[in-house]
Amino acid sequence: MANLTKMMLYFQKNAQKFGESTALLSGTQSYSYSRLINHAENVAGILLGNQSDLNQSPVAYMVEPGFSYVSSQWGIWLAGGIAVPVALAHPLESIKYILQDTGAKTFICSANFTSLLSDFCREAGVRLIVWEEMPQSNPISLPEVQLDRGAMILYTSGTTSLPKGVLSTHLCIESQIKSLVEAWKYSANDHTLCVLPLHHIHGIINVISATLYVGGKVEFLAQFSAEEIFARFNQGALNVFMAVPTIYFKLIAYLESLDEIKRQELKTCMQAFRLMISGSAALPVSVMEKWETLSGQRLLERYGMTEIGMAISNPYEGERKAGHVGMPLPSVQVRLVDEANKPIQNEAGEIQIKGPTVFKEYWGKAVATKEAFTEDGWFKTGDVAELVDGYYRILGRNSTDIIKSGGYKLSALEIEEVLRTHSSVEDCSVVGLPDEEWGEIVAAVVVLKSNTSSDELNTFMRSKMPAYRVPRKYLFLSELPRNAMGKVTKNDLKVLFT
């Protein structure tokens, strides 16, 4: 086992403090904080070999959620490396892109991924370490890792260009954690269930890192199953749950398939939870209201992104407004600006963020990094919002959700909310299509739960909003295309109209 240096990172200090308390539960196994940090030290020793410090070298890892994931991540950090989590569902070409873009020369993987990775890693000169086959490392002194050093690279979704690697420092990560711990009142009594992919900030920071920071427990589910999630709920140990709107949508569908006695039993169980949160995509008001009816829980909606962590949140104590993402989190500065980049009030504008939670740079992309910030250091999110009675309300993303038609700026999200109130609409997504006369026209892609026509939808929408906001084209699909975090990939929808 490695010997810890006098200077310890935040997770090292806390793991030692919480000792034999349970940190992780996966399947039938439980793992203490002591066992977790000890194994992380062993991983660090394997990574270091004869080196004294990885000196911020990127190390990729592709392992199952649970003990192997957290110990790999912590081991990379203890060795002075930059952790690069890779999605379990990524095809080889996407993995190649990440390895080539980061320049990672070491890759930790679970044994069941070796057949996918071994040939490429051998040809590319990448050291492949199979997690299950790691030997016991020799005792070694761990490097001192300052908080301003690089800690993690997460990749953007790449919907409009090639994915960019978002580099966060240890200071950035700890600042994100501390902000959430203060705002959402994490404690050692928290026991949360992780059902989110772990190449995204939602699962990594909000679920795992913040919970472990205070000595709580994180339980893992190998793959999504509504039945299994409710079985875990019914055991009575869980008290915190975080998910994306798509998951809540599926959980609602499952609950509605049960008889009244079973639904009431689960509602009684869920009412005892301390907190339930939704994020990573806009939460439809209809989903929020239906979940509250079925669970007794008013979901807390928040706003964040890979580059900034969580920035805005409805209050833990206080009114959680449907259709709004709330107020700035501790240590986060928020402002709205116009197209000339000037701060504005009482009108919609782009959200800009400043503070210690903001990422350092796009990996290897100095020009993109410079373009992402204002001259005085504000990060340009590209998301448009308005401030109403102290609560921010997201109107959409400049590039995909703000439709410029006939001189109007229309929020696709607002039009979607109205369309979802039609009794035949299961789900929908609104996009802007290029048009010579109008600049863009409004189009809607709709998933139906009962038969209706575009003419009927058009009549309904015209009764609910001005004509210039009503979709001019409709397309019906069996389901909407989404990325790993449940966001609709709107660019995929636009091409369906051509």
From TrEMBL:
Q: Does the keyword Repressor apply?
A: no
Which keywords has UniProt assigned to this entry?
Answer: Ligase
Task: Give GO terms for biological process.
Answer: fatty acid metabolic process
InterPro entries, alphabetically? AMP-bd_C, AMP-bd_C_sf, AMP-binding_CS, AMP-dep_synth/lig_dom, ANL_N_sf
Source domain of life: Bacteria
- Which PROSITE patterns does the entry link to? AMP_BINDING (PS00455)
Q: Its Gene Ontology molecular function terms?
A: medium-chain fatty acid-CoA ligase activity
List the EC numbers from the record: 6.2.1.-
Q: Ranges for the AMP-dependent synthetase/ligase domain?
A: 11-363
Enzymatic class:
ligase
Coiled coil ranges (UniProt) are none
Q: Does the keyword Ligase apply?
A: yes
Q: Taking every annotated instance into account, which residue ranges of this chain make up the domain AMP-binding enzyme C-terminal?
A: 414-487
Pfam families per UniProt:
AMP-binding, AMP-binding_C
Q: Provide the family line.
A: Belongs to the ATP-dependent AMP-binding enzyme family.
What this protein is called in its record is Plipastatin synthase subunit
Organism this protein belongs to: Aquirufa nivalisilvae
